[in-house]
Design brief:
The protein is an all-beta fold. It has a single domain, classed as OB fold (Dihydrolipoamide Acetyltransferase, E2P), CATH 2.40.50. 0% of the residues lie in helices and 55% in strands. Strands 1-2-3-5-4 form a 5-stranded mixed β-barrel. The mean pLDDT is 93.
């Protein structure tokens, strides 16, 4: 049975850019933000450390991450599910 997320939990979709740590992946999230003066779409990137209990996510995978309690100094996110596996994996 899958755990349900509270409605106020932040979630992001991102790409795994590093899976070298045990039970931890680094996820890059791209966001489109409208520039305040020029009203042009600008791409912002953020990198998050996410807890991956089963080591299921691999390099290049598309994952869904959710905010959670602090797991360590830098980990405040966890991998909810792997949306799409990387091509050629």
């Amino acid at each position: 049975m899958e755990k349900r997320q509270p409605d106020n939990t932040k979630t992001f979709q991102g790409t795994v850019v590093s899976d070298k740590m045990d039970k931890t992946v680094t996820v890059r999230v791209n966001r489109l933000v409208s520039h305040s003066m020029f009203e042009k779409q600008v791409q912002h990137r953020s990198k998050f450390m996410a807890h991956d209990e089963k080591n299921a996510a691999k390099l290049g995978d598309r994952v869904l991450i959710a905010e959670t309690r602090p797991m360590s100094r830098q980990k405040r996110w966890r991998v909810v599910k792997v949306i799409r596996k990387a091509v050629g994996a």
